[in-house]
Amino acid sequence: MTAGPALDADRGTVDRQAVWSALGTVLDPELDEPITDLDFVETCTVTPEPDPDSDTGGDAGGVAGGVAVTVGLRLPTFFCAPNFSFLMVADAYDAVMAIPGVNRASVTLADHSASEEINGGVAAHAGFVKSFEGSVNGEAAAELDELRRTFLSKAAMAGQDRVAQPLVDAGAGPDELAAMTLGELAGTDADTAELGRMRTRREAIGLPAGDDAPLLLHPDGSRVTTEQVPLHLRRARLQRVGIETNGEYCKSLLKIRYAPEAANH
Question: Which SUPFAM superfamilies match (predicted)?
Fold first, then answer.
């Protein structure tokens, strides 16, 4: 994880590292990577708030010694999908506001075709549909819970390839893979950070993620049979490659868009 650009902050009760860590829990839904790793966080400022009981005044509803946080996000293109963009801004706001000691937060997206709708909607806690009512960018048909679930399901599928591949390389066959549970992976070559990541994605969408859960699962949560293992692993690998390829493409676009030399033209 990089230290992050433009993290110039006055230190209060909450420091910038706490905010950065919170932002690190926010994922690009399509790429399944933290917005901090993707370099989508352009600015982050932490400012101490006045003590509500002091002579300087302040918001009586605030926390004494609390802070205000301002975060600016950026994306690879002007036309990145508004639904994905809204999710990231809204999730970033929620993550920052969940930090004890944060009184106020402003999270905005710059240089985007729907910045006005997204920024206004998140600030007003309006939801995706209401934020785009009457928008020149088109109206939203539904909220984003199902979209989020769809991409978490894809990430969970891709995770099966990452976790299973070391086992395949070590000689595990379809019978063994179909019977294997997550708890049995402890101490094996598959017992890596990717295993924990896959568990987290499964838990988020209600799929089995405990020690007795099968390693290989269909998107509906049913167990993969021995006969289905080869095709299932091919699909999982395709999902992983697709996500990772899109991620590298977006990182390249972001570097081009915000290259230092571009700012001089």
Answer: Fe-S cluster assembly (FSCA) domain-like
Which residues of the chain have a pLDDT value below 70?
Answer: 1-13, 51-65, 136-141, 261-265
Cβ 219 vs Cβ 153: under 8 Å:
yes
Contact (CB, 8 A) for 138 and 129: no
What angle do the packed helices 145-169 and 229-257 form, to 10 degrees? 120
Q: Where are the domains of the chain?
A: 16-142, 146-252
Six token digits for residue 262 = 């571009």
- Write down the pLDDT at residue 117: 96
Reduce the DSSP state of residue 67 to 3 states and report it. strand
Contact 73, 41 (CB under 8 A): yes
Which residues, 6 or more positions from 201, have their beta carbon under 8 angstroms from its beta carbon? 32, 152, 155, 156, 159
Spatial separation of the C-alpha atoms in residues 51 and 53, rounded to whole Å: 5
This prediction has a pTM of 0.85
| Spatial separation of the C-alpha atoms in residues 128 and 83, rounded to whole Å | 8
Q: How far apart are CA 14 and CA 10, in angstroms?
A: 10
Fold of 16-142: GMP Synthetase; Chain A, domain 3 (3.30.300)
